[in-house]
Write a structure and sequence with these properties.
The protein is of the alpha+beta class. Helices cover about 50% and strands about 20% of the residues. The protein has a 4-stranded mixed sheet with strand order 1-4-3-2, with helices on both faces. About 5% of the residues are buried.
Length: about 130
């Protein structure tokens, strides 16, 4: 999200017509410096990470997977609501200090805010 403070990691969401990925597709990503990490706690996801600059995470889902759709909805909501984006940035800055060295704790602590924004987005779409 342009203008939003973030860790220096590029998050890439890929929605595909077919999953799981083939061995050849996984090996192609690995040959480009990505580590294949499987579902990494989210069923139906193919996850890759790269630590070398620029560091990146690839989250691949089937195009109909609800988690992939939620990631897009959250991105779009923040893009359309500057105040929510600023709140999210402030939350991430606070949690980065509070959970320094505890990535799972940091991620879990952001979850209530993310879910609240997704609820607001769903309510707005129902109107």
């Amino acid at each position: 999200m342009p203008g939003l403070a973030a860790k220096p990691i590029i998050d890439i969401l890929v929605l595909l017509d077919r999953l799981p990925l083939s061995r050849e597709e996984i090996e192609a990503a690995v040959s480009r410096g990505y580590e294949y990490r499987g579902e990494q706690g989210i069923g139906g996801r193919e996850y890759f990470s790269r630590r070398d600059a620029p560091a990146a995470h690839i989250h691949a889902f089937h195009r109909d997977h609800p988690e992939g759709r939620l990631m897009l909805a959250f991105r779009d909501y923040l893009g359309a609501h500057a105040e929510a984006a600023r709140e999210y940035e402030a939350l991430k800055r606070r949690l980065a200090v509070e959970y320094a060295g505890n990535r799972p704790g940091y991620t879990d602590a952001k979850e209530p805010f993310v879910r609240q924004m997704l609820r607001l987005d769903a309510e707005a779409k129902r109107r």
